[in-house]
Write a structure and sequence with these properties.
This protein has a single domain, classed as Rossmann fold, CATH 3.40.50. Helices cover 37% and strands 16% of the residues. The strands form two sheets. A seven-stranded parallel beta sheet has the order 1-10-9-6-2-3-5. It has a three-stranded antiparallel beta sheet with strand order 4-8-7. α1 packs across α2. The longest helix is centred in the C-terminal third of the chain and has 20 residues. The radius of gyration is 18 Å and the shape is globular. 42% of the residues are buried. The structure holds fructose -6-phosphate. Fructose -6-phosphate binds next to loops.
């Protein structure tokens, strides 16, 4: 895992947007895996800014979101389709038909997961999967106990997650109990994963994910098995890391190496 500790949440977003920018430059028909929640909002703002400045072009890009709530009416402002529309899609030139979220309106919900994985495969697989992390260590809505090999499927939300997400609804009772989420196995198929975390509420989960054992108790720890995962943190999210100094030293060396490699 490449662990990058930036000075604050804005620098986290700036750093992440740089990875998106260079990927889009090298591969205009990129397949992006996207996330919702509070964490990526700043990154999406940076991407919109760069698009407006003519630095990014999403014309040929395809997107697949990690998850969607089950049970909200179509057009519900807290549905992840609406979130993506508001926070990113309507501000950039991605083709609407190239943006995908799990279809939760279907009568055959049980089949939806497999269909979604097939669609991702047919698009050539995900080049860069963006992730946030739940305070309970979830990625997507893969809650503790999820199989590390799981595929996209229906998944119940834990009380902790429903409580965390209640801030977006009138009360916890309005937070859906089910979602369709990409599985951990599906996420691990992405060519690169990039997880962002900011704020002290994520510090415990981040420490367990990076420095703890690989375990279904902490679904994000499965990323230790991925060959190309970048974790970008602010100091609050990084505060419990035991090997923080080592990650910072390594990152300096990595950047030095990258600059000499591009110069030659
Ligand atoms: C969102 C998702 C979730 C969030 C996580 C963190 O698509 O899959 O795993 O990334 O719950 O949410 P925030 O960023 O709101 O703290």
């Amino acid at each position: 895992m490449r662990v990058i500790i930036e000075s604050d949440a804005d620098a986290v977003a700036e750093c992440a947007s740089g990875f998106f920018q260079s990927l889009l430059l090298h591969k205009p028909d990129v397949v992006l895996g996207l996330a919702t929640g509070s964490t990526p909002i700043k990154l999406y703002q940076k991407l919109i800014q760069k698009f407006q400045q003519g630095l990014l072009n999403f014309q040929q890009a395809t997107t697949f979101n990690l998850d969607e709530y089950v049970g909200l009416e179509i057009g519900h402002p807290e549905s992840y389709r609406c979130f993506m529309q508001e926070q990113l899609f309507r501000h950039i030139n991605v083709r609407p038909e190239a943006t995908h979220l799990p279809q939760v309106e279907s009568k055959n919900l049980l089949r939806q997961g497999a269909d979604y994985d097939e669609k991702i495969l047919a698009a050539g697989g995900i080049d860069l999967q963006l992730l946030g992390i739940g305070s309970d260590g979830h990625i997507g809505f893969n809650e503790p106990g999820s199989s590390l090999a799981s595929r996209t499927r229906i998944k119940a939300l834990t009380r902790v997650t429903r409580q965390d997400n209640a801030r977006f609804f009138n009360s916890i009772d309005d937070v859906p109990k089910l979602s369709v989420t990409m599985g951990i196995g599906s996420i691990l198929k992405a060519r690169r994963c990039m997880l962002l975390a900011t704020g002290p509420a994520k510090a415990k989960a981040i420490q367990a994910m990076i420095e703890g054992s690989v375990t279904a108790r902490v679904p994000a720890s499965a990323l230790q098995l991925h060959p190309d995962t970048i974790v970008i943190l602010d100091p609050d999210a990084a505060k419990l890391l035991q090997f923080k100094d080592y990650y910072q030293d390594s990152e300096l060396l990595q950047r030095e190496l990258e600059s000499t490699t591009t110069e030659t």
